[in-house]
Write a structure and sequence with these properties.
This protein has helices at residues 2-84, 98-106, 111-119, 124-128, 131-135, 139-147, 152-159, 163-171, 178-182, 186-209, 219-241. The protein is mostly helical and 268 residues long. Helix 10 (186-209) packs antiparallel against helix 11.
Amino acid sequence: MHKLSILFLALMIGLGQAIAYDFDDSESYGGIFDDEEYSSTESSNDSEDSYSTEDSYTAEETYSTEASYSSEEPSSTTIEASASQWDNLSYEELGLSQWEFQQVKKSNLTRSKLLSLLEIGVRPAEYLQKPWEQLGVSEDQWLNERSKGLEDTDIDRSYRNNANNQSYAYLSLLVPSLYQWKVDKKAEAISMNVIWGLSVGATVYLGLTSKNKEYFYTIPVIAAVHIWSFANGLLETQWETNPDANRFSWGVAPNFDGGWAGICQWRF
């Protein structure tokens, strides 16, 4: 009986050791498995991060490249369009000089605009100088009048706003110095008023005191002042309305070459 108890005790101890050994092995194996699983998960995450970063970089690079290409595309298209609009167009057939054609290409003038200008008889060199600004009209008005065959002098007469001043010039025939005061020519206006006043005063005085009708000598002076004021205003307004008159030169200025003999060199 005592032997059976010892044997049973030995079996229990051995069984306990076996169970303890198996438990340790399972924990060790489980730890290894967890480490491997963690490593695998971490590696997978790193791979995904790397993949997403590469994809993001690739996408950004592709987008920036496409954006850059898109931004450059209009300029190249503009250049091609600018170059293509002058293809198959001979400036000699249009009656233009090479210099004029180069000026047209450097400006923003389009092919259709150039052809429309030539149809109404306007050369591009003249158009690029913007003559309508000097005439005080709009570009459309200038082109419309030129299409009717009018020259700049005719357009200037039609559109220049000097009707009021010219009316004052006509009224100056009745009221001396009226035009001169209107255009702020004070020196001439004062001179006319003084001469006119003295002449009228002398005429009245002589008419009241003289028996020989001496006042007739002062009446021409009064008339001369009226004519002076009228003629001065009329000539100035006509000079302004006629651009060709601005190029008129008497040629009488004294100089070392011609002196006063230049009076024979009237030119327009």
